[in-house]
Design a protein that fits this description.
InterPro entries: BCKD/PDK (IPR039028), HATPase_C_sf (IPR036890), HATPase_dom (IPR003594), His_kinase_dom (IPR005467), Sig_transdc_His_kin-like_C (IPR004358)
Number of strands: 5
Keywords: ATP-binding, Kinase, Mitochondrion, Nucleotide-binding, Transferase
Largest sheet: 5 strands, mixed
Family: Belongs to the PDK/BCKDK protein kinase family.
Radius of gyration: 16 Å
Bound molecules: adenosine-5'-triphosphate, magnesium ion
Shape: globular
Structural class: alpha+beta
CATH class: Alpha Beta
CATH topology: Heat Shock Protein 90
EC number: 2.7.11.-
Helix content: 25-40%
Number of domains: 1
GO molecular function: ATP binding; protein kinase activity
CATH superfamily: Histidine kinase-like ATPase, C-terminal domain
Distance between the termini: 16 Å
CATH architecture: 2-Layer Sandwich
Strand content: 15-25%
Length: about 170
């Protein structure tokens, strides 16, 4: 599979949810060799990139909502080394304080409103078909679980006041 192609699809999926909820969506710029392919499960990579990009888009939207500046793009870099494939997703959404880092990999931890409260007019069946940008609090723990399944890892470095660096590093081993 081509990681660049999967990253592009996942980013577009995330952007369309962002567009629906905020009325706008930051750009996602993807860098890397479009012809590079390697053996991996496309749906796994799609889920991880989708979750990380959704988080980045939300952070950037929330930070620039009252600003007249153009929101800075989310950047994805696909690095194809001889041994390791690494994907870095970074944003300028302000990051979080270091003290908050232990919480973000906890299931059900979210700083967004719970979509179940938000859409209390919908019943559970309808809710299953509504995708939201954030609010369930399992995007990060599930993504890390997926990454680790094939011997990879998900690492997150926060630069409070600037943004987040999210590494799928290595993607597999
Ligand atoms: N790139 C980011 N910038 C700033 N904060 C972030 C970023 N990514 C995650 N967070 C914080 O970590 C929390 C947990 O993220 P996680 O993806 O697990 O859940 P969620 O986005 O709230 O809900 P969902 O399960 O729907 O993705 C978020 O609510 C947010 O506060
Ligand atoms: Mg999320």
């Amino acid at each position: 599979m081509s990681p660049l192609e999967v990253a592009r699809d996942a980013s577009e999926d995330a952007r369309s949810i962002c567009l629906r909820e905020y009325g706008s969506a930051p750009k996602v710029n993807i860098y890397g060799d479009p012809n590079f392919t390697f053996p991996y499960v496309p749906t796994h990579l799609h889920l991880m990139v989708f979750e990380l990009v959704k988080n980045s888009l939300r952070a950037v939207e929330e930070r620039f909502v009252d600003s007249d500046k153009v929101p800075p793009p989310v950047r994805i870099i696909v690095a194809d080394g001889l041994e390791d494939v690494t994907i870095k997703i970074s944003d300028e959404g302000g990051g979080i304080p270091r003290s908050g880092l232990p919480k973000i990999f906890t299931y059900l931890y979210s700083t967004a409103r719970n979509p179940l409260d938000e859409h209390s007019d919908l019943d559970t069946i309808d809710l299953a078909t509504v995708s939201t940008l954030a609010g369930y609090g399992y995007g990060l723990p599930i993504s890390r679980l997926y990454a680790r399944y094939f011997g990879g890892d998900l690492q997150i470095i926060s630069m409070e006041g600037y943004g987040m660096l999210q590494y799928l590093s290595p993607l597999f081993s």
